Amino acid sequence: MKKISLIHLKAGHKGKVAEITGGSNLAARLMSMGLYKGKEVTKISHIGLKGPVVVKSGRTILALGHGPAAKIILEVVC
Predict the structure, then answer these.
(1) Could you give phi then psi for residue 17, rounded to 5 degrees?
(2) DSSP state of 6
(3) What is the mean pLDDT of residues 48-75?
(4) How far is CA 51 from CA 16, 32, 65, 75, in A?
(5) Distance in angstroms (rounded) separating the CA atoms of residues 8 and 78
(6) Residue 78 above 80 pLDDT?
(7) Could you tell me the strand order of the sheet in which 60-64 lies?
(8) Is residue 20 predicted with pLDDT exceeding 80?
(9) Residues 27, 68: contact at Cβ < 8 Å?
(10) Phi and psi of 21, rounded to 5°?
(11) Are strands 60-64 and 3-5 parallel, antiparallel or unpaired?
């Protein structure tokens, strides 16, 4: 499977979280929001070059900053 960062995933496409490279603090913060390894997410939009990334995970919609989104590595589903 192809692995890419969340910021490089195109809007409307899905991916499964393969790893979070930002360390344990970021992983814990994302887990508290419902985003963890193995979870499938759909990218809704990416605002600007360094703007927030909006994703849907289950029934939850999250807006992540560019930095944390760059540290989320996905396996592309479609």
Answers:
(1) -65, 120
(2) G
(3) 93
(4) 22, 22, 7, 22
(5) 13
(6) no
(7) 3-5, 72-76, 14-20, 40-46, 53-57, 60-64
(8) yes
(9) no
(10) -90, 5
(11) unpaired
Residue 61's beta-bridge partner residues? Answer: 56
Q: Tell me the backbone φ, ψ of residue 4, rounded to 5 degrees.
A: -140, 165
Model confidence pLDDT, tens digit, residues 33-60: 999 999 999 999 988 788 899 999 999 9
Residues 6+ apart with CB under 8 A from 47: 53, 54
**The whole model's pTM is what?**
0.90
Residue 28 CA to residue 10 CA, distance in Å, equals 26
CA 77-31-37 angle, 5° bins: 35
Query: CA 48, CA 29: separation in Å to the nearest integer?
Result: 24
One-letter amino acid identity for 14? K
DSSP-derived secondary structure letter, 30? H
